[in-house]
From TrEMBL, chain A:
Protein's name according to its UniProt entry: FMN reductase
Domain NADPH-dependent FMN reductase-like: 14-177
UniProt keyword Nucleus, yes or no: no
UniProt GO molecular function: oxidoreductase activity
Enzyme Commission numbers on file: 1.5.1.-
EC category: oxidoreductase
Alphabetical UniProt keywords: Flavoprotein, FMN, Oxidoreductase
A Pfam short name: FMN_red
Phylogenetic classification of the source organism: Bacteria, Bacillati, Actinomycetota, Actinomycetes, Kitasatosporales
C-alpha cells in the first residue's frame, strides 16, 4: 500500500486506487497510476475537458492511497469462508469507503474483470452495501489485445452501476500495443484518453463528501417496530 | 453450586449439535451416537461444576438437535444443579404457543433450572418447512415474542396479530413455575435490531462472538447496554450480557495445536479458510494450555464490560466424545475455578448477578410486596 499527497492549495480530495494487477511490474498498476496522475493534473474546474495540458494545479490537493489486491488476495478469499474480513483487508475497505473518489483497474481475464477484482468488490458489497453509493468511480482495464476493450462497458460498468456508484463517462482500456502507439492525431492515443478521463473524474470530486466513521448502525426504536405490526382496527 | 445460589458469572457449554466426520479417522458418528454423546456431555458439565448447558435447534443435516426440550427434559432428570438452556430457540418458525407450553413444562420438570435464548436461525429454507414466510423474518421475531411474553405473564389471553390465527380466552398450560417465566436471552451474531429488542424488554443479550472479530461485538453490546439504560431497566452495568468462547486445551500448548489443527482445518463453519493462527488472533478461539485459555477469556471483560454468562463451544467439528470429555474436565477443574476468582475480583458493585429462577422469584415477590404496601397506603 502506498500513498502520496500532491497539489498546491485548497482542501484535499482522497482518492482510493484499486489495482488488481498481478505482475510486478504490472501494466494494470501503471494504468492506475497514470489515471491518478491525470486526475491530479486536471485543470481547475474542469468537468469534461479533452486537454493535454499539465500542471495547472487543481482547486484541491489530491491524496492517493493505492490498494494492490494481490497483497490482500488470501484475506479476500478467507472472507468468503469466515464471513469477516481480516485486519489488512478491513483497513482497505475503510479506505475505499472514506475515499472521495475511486479509481478501479483490472486486467481482463476470460472476457471480464479478474476473479480477484470481482471478489474484492463482492467483499465491499457484503460488508457495507452503501460503501460505493454515489461515489465517483473511474474505470480502467488492461489486456493483451485491443479486442477486449468493451469489457469496460459490458462488465465493469454494470458491476459499479449495481453498487450504485457514479461511473465517469470516459473509461480507459489499455492494450499492450497502446503503450507504444504514437499519437496519429486521428484515434485518441492512450495518453489523451487518460487525460480526458482524469479531467472528467476531477470534475466529479468533492473533498470530504464521504467522511470517516459515517458508517453507524441505525436502529429503529422498538416501539416503532411493534407499532408497524399492530392490526388496524 | 445450587440452583438457588447467586453467581456473578455463569459458565457453561453450548452445543451446535453437528454430526461431522472425524477428519483424523474419516469416521462419521451415527445420529444416535451423536445424540447420546450430547446427553453425556451435558451430564459431564454438571459433574465438573459448570452452571449451564445450552443446545442449538436445527432442522437440517448435518445437525441433530431438532427437539431441544426433549433433550433438555432428559438432562433435567439426570442432573441436580445445571441450568438448561437453548442456543438458540427459533422464535421465527416455532409457534409461540408451543414455545410457551414447552418451556413452562420444562421449568416444572427441572424445578426452575431453565432459561431460553431466542434467535432467528442461520438458514433461510427453514421458514417454509414450518409454514412461514422468510420475507417476514424480523416482523415474525417481533410479533411471536410479544405474544410469547403475554402467554407467560397473563393467565387468559385474547390476542390478534398478523402471523397466526387469533386467540380468544386462551390459557397456556402449565403456567410458569412460581408465576415466573424462564429468563430470556436474545442471541445475535450481527443484528442491531436484536440488541434493541433485548434492551426494550430488559432481557439478556447473548453475543455469539466466536466467529467474528471483537470490534463488531463491542458495537453491538454497547448499543444493547445504552438502550437497556434508555428503557429504564437499570444502568448500563446492570444489563445482562452473555458471550461465547471456543477452546481446545492440552497441558502443553504445542500438543493442543497439533491435535486440534485437523479439526480446525476441516470444521464446517470456518474450515478451509484462514489458518488456525490467523483465526485465533482475530476471534475468541484459544488453542493452547489452560493458562492461555484463562488469559484470553479474562480479556473479554476488558472488551465488553463485566458480564453474566460465558458459554464455551467444545463438541463440534468431529472431535471424539472421549476428547470432548477430557476438555470439559480441564475446563471445569483448571480453568473455570480461576476465572470465577479473577472475574469476581474487581467486579464493580452494581454489576448485575447472573439470572437464576430463585433470584427472579425473590425479585417478583419483593416487587409484589412493594405494590401491596403502596396499595394499602393509598386506601
Amino acid at each position: 500500500m502506498t500513498s502520496g499527497t500532491s497539489g498546491t492549495s485548497g482542501s484535499t480530495v482522497k482518492l482510493a486506487v484499486v489495482s488488481a494487477g498481478i505482475g510486478e511490474p504490472s501494466s494494470t498498476r501503471l494504468l492506475a497510476d497514470r489515471l491518478a496522475e491525470a486526475t491530479r493534473l486536471a485543470p481547475a474546474g474542469q468537468g469534461s475537458g479533452d486537454s493535454d495540458s499539465n500542471g495547472h494545479g487543481a482547486e484541491f490537493q489530491v491524496e492517493t492511497e493505492v490498494l494492490e489486491l494481490r497483497e490482500l488476495a488470501s484475506e479476500i478469499a478467507h472472507t468468503f469462508v469466515t464471513g469477516f474480513p481480516g485486519g489488512a483487508l478491513r483497513s482497505a475497505l475503510e479506505t475505499v469507503r472514506e475515499a472521495d473518489g475511486l479509481i478501479a483497474v483490472t486486467p481482463v481475464f476470460s472476457a471480464s474483470y479478474s476473479g480477484l477484482f470481482k471478489s474484492f468488490f463482492d467483499v465491499v458489497g457484503m460488508t457495507d452495501e452503501d460503501a460505493l453509493r454515489a461515489k465517483p468511480v473511474l474505470l480502467g482495464a488492461t489486456g493483451g489485445s485491443p479486442r477486449h476493450s468493451l469489457v469496460l462497458e459490458h462488465a465493469m460498468r454494470p458491476l459499479f452501476a449495481y453498487l450504485r456508484a457514479v461511473t465517469v463517462p470516459t473509461a480507459v482500456y489499455a492494450a499492450t500495443d497502446d503503450w507504444a502507439a504514437p499519437d496519429d492525431g486521428v484515434t485518441p492515443s492512450l495518453p489523451r484518453r487518460i487525460a480526458r478521463a482524469g479531467g472528467e473524474f476531477a470534475g466529479l470530486l468533492t473533498p470530504g463528501r464521504f467522511p470517516a466513521g459515517a458508517q453507524e448502525d441505525e436502529v429503529v426504536p422498538f416501539e416503532q417496530q411493534l407499532a408497524a405490526l399492530r392490526p388496524n382496527d | 453450586m445450587t440452583a438457588t445460589a447467586t453467581t456473578p458469572l455463569q459458565f457453561g457449554l453450548f452445543s451446535v449439535g453437528d454430526v461431522t466426520p472425524d477428519p483424523t479417522t474419516g469416521r462419521t458418528p451415527t445420529e444416535h451416537e451423536r445424540i447420546k454423546a450430547i446427553l453425556t456431555i451435558a451430564r459431564k458439565a454438571e459433574e465438573v461444576g459448570l452452571d449451564v448447558f445450552a443446545t442449538g435447534e436445527h432442522h437440517n443435516p448435518p445437525f441433530v438437535p431438532s427437539s431441544p426440550t426433549t433433550m433438555l427434559g432428559h438432562i433435567a432428570a439426570r442432573t441436580e444443579n445445571l441450568i438448561l438452556s437453548t442456543a438458540t430457540t427459533l422464535i421465527t418458525t416455532n409457534d409461540p404457543v408451543k414455545i410457551a407450553e414447552d418451556f413452562a413444562m420444562l421449568q416444572h420438570v427441572a424445578d426452575g433450572r431453565v432459561d431460553v435464548m431466542m434467535g432467528r436461525g442461520n438458514t433461510g429454507p427453514v421458514y417454509p418447512w414450518f409454514g412461514q414466510d422468510i420475507r417476514q423474518g424480523i416482523p415474525l421475531a417481533i410479533e411471536n415474542y410479544a405474544l410469547l411474553r403475554r402467554l407467560w405473564t397473563e393467565d387468559v389471553v385474547d390476542w390478534q396479530g398478523r402471523f397466526r390465527t387469533p386467540l380468544q380466552g386462551f390459557t397456556s398450560t402449565p403456567r410458569p413455575l412460581d408465576g415466573v417465566p424462564p429468563f430470556v436471552w436474545h442471541g445475535s451474531i450481527r443484528s442491531p435490531e436484536i440488541a434493541e429488542q433485548a434492551a426494550y424488554y430488559g432481557d439478556g443479550f447473548f453475543a455469539n462472538n466466536i466467529f467474528w472479530p471483537k470490534g463488531h461485538f463491542k458495537k453491538l453490546i454497547n448499543l444493547y447496554r445504552d438502550r437497556f439504560e434508555h428503557y429504564g431497566h437499570g444502568t448500563r452495568e446492570q444489563a445482562l450480557v452473555g458471550l461465547g468462547g471456543q477452546v481446545f486445551m492440552r497441558r502443553n500448548s504445542q500438543d493442543a495445536v497439533r491435535e486440534f489443527r485437523p479439526y480446525f482445518d476441516n470444521a464446517p463453519v470456518y474450515g478451509h479458510g484462514p489458518t488456525l493462527e490467523e483465526f485465533t488472533s482475530e476471534t475468541p478461539l484459544t488453542v493452547g494450555s489452560p493458562q492461555e485459555v484463562i488469559e484470553k477469556t479474562l480479556t473479554f471483560r476488558e472488551s465488553f464490560g463485566d458480564y453474566q454468562r460465558q458459554l464455551f463451544l467444545m463438541d463440534h467439528a468431529g472431535l471424539p466424545l472421549k476428547t470432548v470429555l477430557e476438555q470439559i474436565d480441564m475446563l471445569g477443574e483448571e480453568v473455570v475455578p480461576v476465572l470465577r476468582k479473577e472475574m469476581a475480583a474487581g467486579r464493580p458493585a452494581g454489576t448485575a448477578e447472573a439470572p437464576t429462577h430463585a433470584a427472579r422469584v425473590a425479585a417478583a415477590q419483593a416487587a409484589a410486596a412493594r405494590a401491596d404496601e403502596k396499595g394499602e397506603a393509598t386506601v
